[in-house]
Amino acid sequence: MILSLRQAIIQRVHDKSSDELREVIESSIGGDDKALPGLGVLFEIIWEHSEQKDQDNMVATLKSHLKS
Question: Which band of pLDDT confidence, cut at 50, 70 and 90, is reported for residue 1?
Fold first, then answer.
């Protein structure tokens, strides 16, 4: 059986507690670039299950932090 990268990442974290998920996220941020695809998959899940107002807030936060 061949897993896609997305499936492998989801399988790796699907049984983790909230504290463990936070640790995965925090340990990946600012770390090795190899962690970026995993963060992308986790963000995709968050985005897909967020309400429009929450998505708008995330976009506004991102935009405000991209200004130079």
Answer: low
Structure tokens at 19: 């504290």
> How much of the chain is helix, strand and coil, in % rounded to 5?
75, 0, 25
Give Dmax over CA atoms of the chain in angstroms: 46
Q: What is the pLDDT of residues 6-30, one digit of tens each?
A: 999 999 999 999 999 999 999 999 9
0.70 exceeded by pTM: yes
**Distance between CA atoms of residues 57 and 51, nearest Å:** 10
d(CA 60, CA 52): 12
> Which residue in the block uniquely carries the two structure tokens 């932090």?
65
